[in-house]
């Protein structure tokens, strides 16, 4: 067998070999100037095997400008390769007629393999070329030049990275161009991105949500496909697919449930706000809907504590086609409908007239997430943990049981990977992606665009909403104006042992100010007037009245590294004016301390006596990271850079 493979496989150095295509970047593949011309199907008029083993370049390689047979014309030859080789044949004589010109050529078996590969990668090569040209010249949502250059250097045959629900090649992103129908796998990838991105947005609004499961479920197309395939009995209801989702619904807080559906090459969706009486149906063709859809989801997912309605009503979605535009964008319309149902950070309503903008935005999002994920160690299951202890236990029990029962043919198991069963760890690329995406400033939310409820802050006494970001392993920084009485730091602890309220005491050694704020945004005051610790605003020092309003100090990624000699941690803080001392104290732990040269400001976080919340082991990161941000309305996170 090894001799057979050696005989039919071209040399790795040969142009258009498998190794050649594997080594190409997207830019390289898109710019092959002399890609071989494939003759129309039916150009082969005859062929015969030969025992001759040619060595000349014309028989061994594809020459520039040489027309080659289409793969469809080589079907019989390729199907009989092995038997012909066993009978001593090493080449084949092929008679072709291309544009009225007759050719009779001797092809080594390895050249037939080259011709097969050129046929296979002809369409992907064209797609890669069109994709890059679109990103460079025509995209309505431009990709940052540095990211575009980085994307061009990705391997031509690379699969997109960072996802659990889908696998596809980068060149397949071509389908976002014009009004090409969006592939199902790509839509499911976008739904997964929406699931995690909304959770990242919620965490930024309320850092205490880190460690909790996303407050929404986004079921990919496979869920309803499985439900319909097994709707004739109780097979689907007893399978692991809805069982795990029911456990997720019972063991975590969920306020929104969405599901996408693919039927006859057309995407539709359902969305339900917990507490309302119906599912809302999305169909950009404005067709009818089957009421059994609601009953099917209700039967599959209702729990004793969360009964779901079986009623379905029409949702708000623009019409595609019939002069409205967006003729091939039913998938993008479904994505937008689900994003709006979730209360997505950018919830502008999709319309056919603006269809290409929404397609370009989805395209740029997928590319950005791929580039961020490519720089992370590990894969999806390294960046998440089960949504709850109960879900984790069920996943563990199902692994062996489903395999054994499926082998016996008596138990249905779905092949799709369900991201709804997981919550992101700090290492998940979604946090960096969230702060890299440019659409945060595209358009503000309005009540008509975002009908969803606002997420209340954990502290009802908080006058302003803290804006704390979970920092990625790469460096991130935020600016704080130390002279502004309204600029108070909010801190996000991303480790279970410190995820509880604590107090930050800001003590100015030079007498400039003395302010405290707890992790939930509640102010306190130390100093001359302690009678109103939660309402008084700190006074400015008179000497500071002439100071520039520009930010006085910068606190960057705070990295806690375990000290095996005790419970202490170390913090990294950069200060523009070199006047910050950071001293932190943990409950039942040694203090941690970082000082700068002048030590003008001291920050003392104190953990309370309340026990920390329990987190699901064993996927805790070894490092604890903390991010501080400004509470001023003008705060914008700085794009993370490498530490």
Automatic annotation (TrEMBL):
Task: List the residue ranges of the region (Disordered).
Answer: 443-484, 505-552
Name the record gives this protein: Uncharacterized protein
Q: Where is the composition biased (Low complexity)?
A: 527-536
Would you say which domain of life the source belongs to?
A: Eukaryota
């Amino acid at each position: 067998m090894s001799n057979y493979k050696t005989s039919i496989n071209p040399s790795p150095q040969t142009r258009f070999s498998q190794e050649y295509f594997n080594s190409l970047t997207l830019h390289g593949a898109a710019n092959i100037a002399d890609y071989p011309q494939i003759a129309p199907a039916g150009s082969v008029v005859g062929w015969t095997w030969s025992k001759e083993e040619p060595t000349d370049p014309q028989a061994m390689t594809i020459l520039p400008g040489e027309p080659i047979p289409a793969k469809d014309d080589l079907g019989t030859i390729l199907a009989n390769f092995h038997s012909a080789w066993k009978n001593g044949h090493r080449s084949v004589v092929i008679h072709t007629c291309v544009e009225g010109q007759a050719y009779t050529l001797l092809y080594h078996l390895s050249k037939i393999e080259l011709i097969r590969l050129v046929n296979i990668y002809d369409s992907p090569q064209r797609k890669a070329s069109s994709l890059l040209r679109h990103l460079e010249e025509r995209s309505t949502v431009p990709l940052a030049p540095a990211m575009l250059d980085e994307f061009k250097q990705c391997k031509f045959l690379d699969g997109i990275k960072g996802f659990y629900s889908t696998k596809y090649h980068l060149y397949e992103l071509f389908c976002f161009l014009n009004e090409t129908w969006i592939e199902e796998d790509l839509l499911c990838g976008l739904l997964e991105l929406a699931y995690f991105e909304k959770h990242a947005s919620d965490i930024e609004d309320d850092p205490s949500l880190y460690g909790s499961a996303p407050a929404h479920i986004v079921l990919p197309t496979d869920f309803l496909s499985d439900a319909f395939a097994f709707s004739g009995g109780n097979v689907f209801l007893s399978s692991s697919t809805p069982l795990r989702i029911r456990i997720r619904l019972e063991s975590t807080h969920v306020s929104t449930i969405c599901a996408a559906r693919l039927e006859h090459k057309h995407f539709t969706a359902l969305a339900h706000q917990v507490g309302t009486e119906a599912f809302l149906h999305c169909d950009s063709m404005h067709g009818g809907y089957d009421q059994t859809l609601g009953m099917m989801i209700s039967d599959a997912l209702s729990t004793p504590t969360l009964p779901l309605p079986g009623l379905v009503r029409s949702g708000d979605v623009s019409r595609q086609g019939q002069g409205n535009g967006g003729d091939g964008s039913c998938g993008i319309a479904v994505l937008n409908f689900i994003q709006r149902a979730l209360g997505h950070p950018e919830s502008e309503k999709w319309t056919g007239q603006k269809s290409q903008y929404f397609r370009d935005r989805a395209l740029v999002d997928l590319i950005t997430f791929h580039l961020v994920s490519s720089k992370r160690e590990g894969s999806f299951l390294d960046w998440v943990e089960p949504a709850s202890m109960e879900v984790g236990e069920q996943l563990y029990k199902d692994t062996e049981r489903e395999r054994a029962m499926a082998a016996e043919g008596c138990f249905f198991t779905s092949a799709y990977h369900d991201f709804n069963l997981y919550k992101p760890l700090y290492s998940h690329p979604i946090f960096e992606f969230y702060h890299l995406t440019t659409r945060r400033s595209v358009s503000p939310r309005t009540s008509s665009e975002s009908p969803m409820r606002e997420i209340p802050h954990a502290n009802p006494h908080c006058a302003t909403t803290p804006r704390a970001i979970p920092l990625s392993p790469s460096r991130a920084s935020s600016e704080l104006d130390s002279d502004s009485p309204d600029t108070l730091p909010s801190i996000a602890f991303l480790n279970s042992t410190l995820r509880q309220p604590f107090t930050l005491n800001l003590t100015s050694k030079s007498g400039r100010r003395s302010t405290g704020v707890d992790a939930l945004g509640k102010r306190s005051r130390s100093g001359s007037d302690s009678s109103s610790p939660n309402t008084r605003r700190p006074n400015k020092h008179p000497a500071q009245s002439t100071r520039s309003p520009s930010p006085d100090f910068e606190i960057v990624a705070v990295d806690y590294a375990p000290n095996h000699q005790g419970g202490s941690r170390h913090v990294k803080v950069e200060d523009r004016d070199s006047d910050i001392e950071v001293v932190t104290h943990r409950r039942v732990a040694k203090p941690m301390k970082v000082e700068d040269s002048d030590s003008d400001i001291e920050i003392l976080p104190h953990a309370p006596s309340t026990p920390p919340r329990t987190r699901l082991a064993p996927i805790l990161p070894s490092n604890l990271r903390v991010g501080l941000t400004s509470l001023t309305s003008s705060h914008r996170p700085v794009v993370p850079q490498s530490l």
